[in-house]
Write a structure and sequence with these properties.
The chain is of the alpha+beta class and 369 residues long. It folds into three domains: 102 residues, Helix Hairpins, CATH 1.10.287.110; 129 residues, Sandwich (HSP40/DNAj peptide-binding domain), CATH 2.60.260; 114 residues, HSP40/DNAj peptide-binding domain. It contains nine helices and 15 strands. It has a four-stranded mixed beta sheet with strand order 10-11-15-14. A three-stranded mixed beta sheet has the order 1-9-8. It is elongated. About 6% of the residues have low confidence. It binds zinc ion (ZN).
Length: 369
């Protein structure tokens, strides 16, 4: 059961606007986190009071609350506990006047130092299908910003290296400590003491480096790999950015990729189809010789298991699907024409698919099942 907003502020339902405001000021002072460091109960009460005030100080919300209670705000965006500390402090301007204007970043007093991060670099790497199938280590030249040798840093004198400036202000809550990022050093806590002539204002310079990138087998066109810390360096004690590697897949002259499977179009002649043959074909792991049975039909698909692309997660490999196409000669000389004319009268050459011959569609269905 959610606590009544009037009870939280300790007022009656008939309280005037001025009374509501006064009650909230009192609670805010009592439970203010800077007066109760580390006290989670006080912080909870502080938030509750702020939430109650948020509703009761708004005539429209107050009317809805008076009529429907907490249900008025359920699922409507302003649910229970919907206020964070920043909301609460931004509300203070209305209640306490201008004195709280600079009160930013509650919790900022913990002495956390911001470390600046260098920017990311992006490069494209073009890979052959063979490289994708087997994985590859690429050495790529990258122009990245590095800390110029000889650059020295000194502790920021404004914030003494903490990256923050603390001020003691006298407010109606008493003496309050407020912290904000140091503007002199941008929160880094240090500044450049000396930089060589070839360094930029941040003490960085461009350097061409060879970065070795391990590319796992199974990557695809458009994928991005991240090499941590190989982007631009940051000044001082900052963290280097990342190198983002975009994969580009070079088209193979013979093989077409479809997911982890590969397709190969094999063309054989009439005679080879009738007599059977064997052929050497390209795969991503070198050439293999395949046997074509005599009497093979055009459209037959031979599946070479495991001759495709390995899956990126390391489990399993795709297949190589060899599509048999019987090539029809486009022109015939006199002698050949006579031969085929003679054959065309032979009943043996009339198409006669038996029930075992699958239609193209059944074959496709079979392949993907
Ligand atoms: Zn500073």
């Amino acid at each position: 059961m959610k606590e009544d907003f009037y009870d939280i502020l300790g007022i009656s339902k008939n309280a005037s606007t001025a009374e509501i405001k006064k009650a909230y000021r009192k609670k805010a002072i009592e439970y203010h986190p800077d007066k109760n460091p580390g006290d989670t109960v006080a912080e909870e009460n502080f938030k509750k009071a702020a939430e109650a005030y948020e509703i009761l100080s708004d005539p429209d919300k107050k009317a809805r609350y008076d009529q429907y209670g907490h249900q008025a705000f359920e699922g409507g965006g302003f649910g229970g506990g919907g206020m964070n500390m920043d909301d609460i402090f931004s509300q203070f301007g209305d209640i306490f006047g201008g004195g709280f204007g600079g009160f930013g970043g509650f919790g900022g007093g913990s002495g956390r130092q911001r470390r600046s991060k260098g920017s990311n670099l992006r490069i494209r790497v073009r890979l052959t299908l063979e490289e994708i199938a087997n994985g590859v280590e690429k050495k790529i030249k990258v122009k990245r910003k590095i800390q110029a040798p000889g650059t020295t840093y000194k502790t920021c004198s404004t914030c003494n290296g903490s990256g923050q400036v603390t001020r003691i202000t006298n407010t109606i809550l008493g003496r309050m400590q407020t912290a904000s990022p140091c503007t002199t050093c941008g929160g880094a806590g240090q500044m450049i003491d000396y930089r060589p002539s070839d360094a930029d204002a941040q003490g960085l310079k461009v350097s061409e480096e060879t970065v070795s990138i391990k590319i796992p087998a199974g990557v695809e066109d458009g994928m991005q790999l991240k090499v941590s810390g190989k982007g631009n360096e940051a000044p001082g004690n900052g963290i280097a950015g990342d190198l983002i590697v975009a994969i580009e897949e070079q088209e193979h002259t013979e093989l077409q990729r479809e997911g982890n499977n590969l397709h190969y179009d094999l063309y054989i002649s009439f005679s080879e189809a009738a007599l059977g043959t064997s052929r050497e074909i390209d795969t991503v792991s070198g050439k293999v010789r395949i046997k074509i049975e005599d009497g093979v039909q055009s459209g037959k698909i031979l599946r070479l298991r495991g001759k495709g692309i390995p899956s990126l997660n390391g489990y399993g490999k795709g297949d190589l699907l060899v599509h048999v196409n019987v090539w029809t000669p486009k022109t015939l000389n006199k002698e050949q024409r006579e031969f085929f004319e003679k054959m065309s009268k032979d009943d043996h050459f009339a198409p006669n698919p038996d029930s075992e011959e699958k239609s193209f569609f059944e074959k496709v269905k079979d392949m993907f099942s």
